[in-house]
Amino acid sequence: MAYGRSVEMVERFQSALQGELDTRYDALLLQREVVIAMCVIMGLLLLYAFFSIYRALRLTIDGLLGVTRRLADGDLSARVQVSSKDEVADIANGLNLMAEAFASSISHMDRTSYELSDVAARLGTSIGLAKQSMNAQQAETEQVATAINEMTTSVADVAQNTEGAAL
What we know:
Number of domains: 2
Structural class: mainly alpha
Strand content: under 5%
Number of helices: 2
Largest sheet: none
Order of helices and strands: HH
Keywords: Membrane, Transmembrane, Transmembrane helix
Transmembrane segments: 34-54
Number of strands: 0
Protein name: Methyl-accepting chemotaxis protein
Mean pLDDT: 90
GO cellular component, one term: membrane
Shape: rod-shaped
Domain HAMP: 55-107
Low-confidence stretches: none
């Protein structure tokens, strides 16, 4: 009887241990499934964050490329719309400043070339007037020279006639 009781106690103890083991094993499986689910969720969140950051950067970089192409095509009014405050926004602001400086320089050169063209036109007009004046003076000088030559000839004739009359 004592033996039967011992066996019965061992079987109850074994049954209790088996129940405890099953409970712990089930808890361990549940914990493992929770960890796997959390890892999957974290992976998906990281993937979402990566693609969100990539998309934001890509849109900003595409905007920068579009503006640089427009600037290269001669549209100096092109500017990048800056909505963020990151390093790419610093680059965009730098590009906007550079485009503004180029536009200002080109505008200044345009005004200067217009002024230079105006001065050149006025100088051309002045040179034309000076040439006309010089031509008129040359014609008058030639007339004076002709008159002097005629007077010299007349004086010479008078002198010759006077000399001939005096002899």
